[in-house]
């Protein structure tokens, strides 16, 4: 082991800065150069100031636990680093409520899918007079969509009665089933739901993967209420139609789905404002996460308004990408605004009058505040 003669002096007598940790033979990270570099690239998920203080510690911890023969971080470690970086960035912006709102949004997503599944299964798939599907039926139903809706009903049931990890697997299976009907339709010659219906279902399904680990009654009852809501809506539509078949085809229900998305966001916003009064902002944050899948429920009407046509896949795909980017932009904008406000409040609290109690800190208190903020 090389022995240094001073803090800034090399063994050859030259003066200079010491080599960074992990690049010399004395570093505990030596011998892992390629793997260390890859872990450090993953650390860009963290804010720069956090990396400068804790970067070596984090990389060293991962390298201590990793298999000595590995050359790449494991998928589990990669996800763990990215998740930790996201959490730290949200913490820096005072926006950890977004993570608290994620399980709430996932529960609402499952409940919405349960309502859609019941409504579309009863109102469209089990109708005796199809309008927009070929004559080749799928057993007693009209399209392959029946398998999709049954799959999502089973996923909702799993969310209600099974542990969280099994519920997530059921949601993943329903997502796979939704994707499977797309290539299955041309292979079998049977009809399937249109893509402007399947795309929002997939968006809600991906959000539903974030179901809470310990849902409690607040996480288990909503899917049941969603299924009951879908059943009631289908019954009301059938009663209103009488002997007619006004909403027995997918193309004739697109406006209904779009309105359902707007109603969903409105209800969650109202509930979120009510809960925010008691200090729980998780439902308000969940509104941001639900904006994209809810807007995709109106994919076809929005595409028609923009292109004056909604008959081609490129048009629908373009609209879906734009809606997704807009939803992500709204989330980022709110987080950035919240972060600026959060840092301003912290700055006033650290160096001036407390915005809550009006206390003016003395010199010692200000020095202590600076020390605490500098401590990792």
Q: Largest sheet, if any? A: none
The quaternary organization reads as: single chain
Number of strands: 0
Work out the strand percent: under 5%
Counting DSSP H or I runs of 4 or more residues, the number of helices is: 13
Average pLDDT metric: 79
Q: What's the shape?
A: globular
**Which structural class is indicated by helix and strand composition?**
mainly alpha
Order of helices and strands: HHHHHHHHHHHHH
Radius of gyration: 27 Å
Distance between the termini: 30 Å
Uncertain segments: 1-28, 130-135, 362-376
* Helix content range: 55-70%
Region (Disordered): 1-32
Biased composition (Basic and acidic residues): 1-12
Transmembrane segments: 96-124, 144-163, 170-188, 194-211, 223-240, 246-271, 283-304, 316-338
Organism: Plantactinospora solaniradicis
Tell me briefly what this model is:
It contains 13 helices and no strands. It has helices at residues 33-42, 48-65, 75-92, 97-125, 145-161, 164-188, 195-208, 216-241, 254-277, 282-296, 299-307, 313-351, 363-374.
């Amino acid at each position: 082991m090389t022995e240094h003669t001073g803090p800034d002096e090399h063994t050859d007598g030259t003066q200079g800065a010491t080599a960074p940790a992990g690049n010399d033979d004395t570093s505990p990270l030596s011998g892992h150069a390629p793997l260390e570099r890859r872990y450090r690239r993953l650390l860009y998920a963290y804010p720069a100031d956090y990396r400068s203080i804790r970067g070596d510690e984090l990389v060293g911890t991962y390298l201590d636990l990793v298999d000595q023969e590995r050359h790449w971080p494991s998928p589990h470690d990669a996800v763990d680093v990215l998740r930790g970086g996201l959490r730290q960035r949200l913490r820096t912006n005072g926006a950890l409520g977004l993570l608290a709102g994620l399980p709430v949004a996932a529960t609402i997503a499952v409940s919405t899918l349960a309502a859609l599944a019941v409504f579309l299964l009863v109102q469209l798939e089990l109708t005796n007079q199809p309008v927009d599907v070929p004559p080749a039926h799928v057993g007693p139903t009209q399209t392959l969509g029946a398998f999709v809706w049954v799959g999502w009903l089973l996923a909702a049931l799993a969310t209600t009665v099974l542990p969280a990890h099994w519920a997530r697997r059921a949601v993943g299976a329903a997502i796979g089933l939704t994707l499977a009907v797309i290539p299955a339709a041309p292979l079998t010659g049977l009809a399937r739901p249109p893509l402007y219906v399947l795309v929002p279902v997939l968006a809600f399904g991906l959000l539903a993967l974030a179901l809470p680990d310990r849902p409690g009654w607040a996480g288990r009852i909503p899917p049941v209420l969603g299924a009951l809501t879908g059943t009631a809506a289908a019954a009301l539509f059938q009663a209103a139609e009488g002997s007619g078949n006004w909403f027995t085809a997918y193309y004739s229900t697109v406006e209904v789905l779009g309105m359902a998305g707007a109603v969903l966001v409105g209800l969650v916003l109202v509930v979120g404002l009510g809960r925010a009064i008691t200090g729980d902002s998780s439902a308000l944050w969940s509104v941001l996460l639900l904006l994209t899948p809810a807007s995709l429920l109106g994919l076809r009407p929005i595409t028609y308004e923009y292109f004056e046509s909604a008959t081609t896949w490129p048009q629908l795909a373009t609209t879906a990408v734009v809606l997704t980017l807009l939803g992500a932009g709204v989330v980022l904008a709110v987080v950035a605004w919240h972060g600026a406000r959060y840092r301003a409040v912290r700055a006033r609290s650290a160096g001036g009058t407390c915005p809550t109690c009006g206390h003016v800190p003395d010199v010692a208190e200000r020095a202590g505040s600076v020390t605490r903020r500098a401590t990792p």
